[in-house]
């Protein structure tokens, strides 16, 4: 009985003790997770309350290994603080606070990927009441910028299996980044036999991840302008971030369904002599296709651009561009019509010129065959004389004669014109155009130039002569008006008259020019005076001789003149037989002999 009572008492004490210990348990609060970048410092806070107060608690920090075991890294009570040796955190942790305020913080420096563990804070009261809390440490590393690389070769729509479009890659991230492909801002999802996305993940020695994604798909013509890019998402402390690559497009080879051909230049109407540039456009894009341009005459050019130089109306016609798909040998074509405008050489009627009689009339025509409306103008000596295809000449005269030029042009085309000429001659006797001057005065032995302008047909013959019967050489030329110009040059030695005589089968005409030689009368007068003086002197000498005033002796006699100091005329007579000389004055008086 006593033993039974003792047992009941022991059980009661145990129940009481257990109940009291439960009342003394410690309550611990911690965050579920702490997030930091690799290499940074992590702070894990442990907050607790205890019925015993905070002074007599034992605090310990543990982490859970990869195998699930607890590993103590820190111990603290009211007397000591100890960091456990030989753990990955021995040199990288510190604990702030004594726990007196119900909070203690574990600091982990230089956090690495291997530190992504669960940390446990254990608080034990003096009465053996214990509480604990847990926090997971999450470590992050921002990946590098993503890259994208598209295929360099084109992709045919005839490919049976999905073809590679491109590859996206992002490196050195933690946790593992995610890659999503987009086409024109729309996410691309895998589809059986149409779209295939193949990811690959590489874990580096550092524990970081590199992710690569390859996109393959069957392409259609509609994909030729699409833009492809990748979106990379990755975790960071406190959230999720996203970055995008640049865009790429692909070359899609597809057969043509429509072909067009046109004249690229010149714009508008085409005329003979132009250079034509034909362009061909096919809406397909094939690596291997045959494109050519041909005309109705069977000429073909294996190109989508053709240049025809110096075209004529023979180049008019239908030009066809043909595209052949070398995979299926299907053919599509398009065509355009080319018309080359033309302007034939002008034809003048009468063709070989015409001869008219005085007063006669003439109607001439000028025409040029053209594909366009033409405009005709007649010119003579650069002056407009008539408009229209017909030229009417009435009451023909020498002024009517000349060369008429008809010019035919196409108003729509600058420079598109042709021309021809008509020579008109008017038969009639010569007609000398009245000179401006017919009287000339020239110095003795000067040259005088005389001109005679003559109209007439047939071309007159011009002859020059002078009043003394001399025939002169002349130079002649005919101008564009049919006027014959005859010119002579004459040396003036006396007064004379020059005659210009023109003649042809129908008659003659003449004009005279009077030339006076200035200074010739004075010279003649001087000559006459000199002759008269000599005559008078001879008469005087003869008279003196007859009167005996001049006497001589037999033998040789010299007669010399000598001027005396008195300006008298002295005649000295000497004889061969005497030494004596007799000087006689003009009056027959003796003069003393000069020694």
From TrEMBL:
Listed Gene3D superfamilies: Immunoglobulins
InterPro entries for the chain: CD80_C2-set, Ig-like_dom, Ig-like_dom_sf, Ig-like_fold, Ig_sub, Ig_sub2, Ig_V-set
UniProt KW keywords: Disulfide bond, Membrane, Signal, Transmembrane, Transmembrane helix
Signal peptide (residue range): 1-24
Topology of this chain in the membrane: Single-pass membrane protein
Intracellular or extracellular location(s): Membrane
Keyword Transmembrane: yes
Designated name of the protein: Melanoma cell adhesion molecule b isoform X3
Taxonomy of the source species: Eukaryota, Metazoa, Chordata, Craniata, Vertebrata
GO CC, alphabetical: membrane
Transmembrane domains' residue ranges: 522-545
Encoding gene, per UniProt annotation: mcamb
Domain Ig-like: 146-249, 255-333, 345-423, 430-516
Source organism, top-level taxon: Eukaryota
């Amino acid at each position: 009985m006593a033993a039974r009572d003792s047992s009941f008492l022991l059980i009661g004490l145990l129940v009481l003790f257990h109940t009291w210990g439960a009342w003394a348990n410690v309550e611990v609060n911690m965050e579920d997770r702490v997030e930091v970048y690799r290499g940074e410092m992590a702070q894990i806070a442990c907050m607790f309350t205890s019925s015993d107060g905070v002074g007599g608690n034992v605090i310990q920090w543990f982490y859970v290994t990869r195998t699930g075991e607890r590993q103590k890294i820190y111990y603290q009570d009211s007397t000591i603080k100890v960091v456990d040796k030989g753990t990955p955190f021995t040199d990288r942790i510190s604990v702030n606070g004594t726990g007196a305020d119900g909070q203690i913080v574990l600091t982990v420096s230089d956090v690495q990927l291997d530190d992504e563990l669960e940390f446990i804070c254990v608080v034990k009261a003096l009465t053996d009441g214990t509480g604990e809390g847990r926090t997971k440490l999450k470590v992050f590393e921002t990946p590098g910028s993503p890259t994208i690389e598209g295929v360099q070769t084109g992709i045919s729509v005839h490919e049976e299996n999905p073809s590679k479009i491109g590859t996206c890659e992002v490196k050195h991230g933690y946790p593992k980044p995610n890659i999503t492909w987009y086409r024109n801002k729309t996410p691309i999802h895998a589809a059986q036999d149409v779209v295939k996305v193949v990811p690959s993940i590489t874990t580096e020695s550092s524990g970081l991840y590199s992710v690569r994604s390859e996109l393959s798909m069957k392409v259609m013509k509609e994909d030729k302008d699409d833009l492809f890019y990748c979106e990379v998402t990755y975790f960071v402390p406190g959230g999720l971030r996203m970055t995008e690559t640049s865009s790429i497009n692909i070359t899609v080879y597809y057969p043509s369904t429509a072909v067009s051909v046109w004249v690229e230049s010149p714009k508008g109407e085409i005329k003979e002599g132009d250079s034509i540039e034909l362009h061909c456009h096919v809406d397909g894009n094939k690596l291997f296709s045959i494109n050519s341009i041909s005309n109705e005459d069977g000429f073909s050019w294996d190109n989508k651009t053709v240049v025809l130089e110096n075209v004529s109306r023979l180049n008019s016609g239908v030009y066809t561009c043909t595209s052949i798909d070398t995979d299926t040998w299907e053919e599509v074509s398009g065509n355009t019509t080319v018309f080359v405008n033309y302007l034939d050489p002008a034809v003048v009627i009468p063709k070989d010129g015409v001869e008219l009689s005085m007063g006669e009339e003439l109607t001439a025509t000028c025409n040029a065959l053209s594909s366009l409306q033409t405009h005709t103008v007649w010119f003579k000596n650069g002056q407009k004389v008539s408009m229209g295809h017909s030229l009417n000449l009435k009451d023909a005269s020498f002024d009517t004669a000349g060369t008429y030029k008809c010019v035919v042009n196409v108003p729509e085309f600058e420079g598109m014109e042709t021309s021809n000429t008509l020579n008109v001659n008017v038969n009639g006797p010569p007609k000398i155009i009245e000179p401006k001057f017919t009287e000339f005065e020239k110095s003795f032995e000067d040259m005088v130039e005389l001109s005679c302008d003559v109209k007439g047909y047939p071309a007159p013959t011009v002859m020059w002569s002078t009043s003394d019967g001399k025939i002169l050489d002349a130079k002649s030329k005919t101008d564009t008006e049919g006027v014959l110009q005859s010119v002579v040059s004459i040396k003036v030695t006396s007064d004379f008259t020059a005659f210009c005589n023109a003649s042809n089968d129908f008659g003659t005409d003449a004009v005279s020019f009077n030339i006076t030689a200035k200074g010739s009368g004075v010279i003649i007068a001087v000559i006459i005076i000199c002759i008269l003086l000599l005559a008078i002197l001879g008469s005087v000498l003869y008279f003196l001789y007859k009167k005996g005033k001049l006497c001589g002796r037999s033998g040789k006699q010299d007669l010399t003149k000598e001027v005396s100091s008195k300006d008298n005329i002295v005649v000295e007579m000497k004889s061969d037989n005497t030494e004596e000389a007799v000087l006689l004055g003009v009056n027959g008086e003796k003069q003393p002999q000069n020694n």
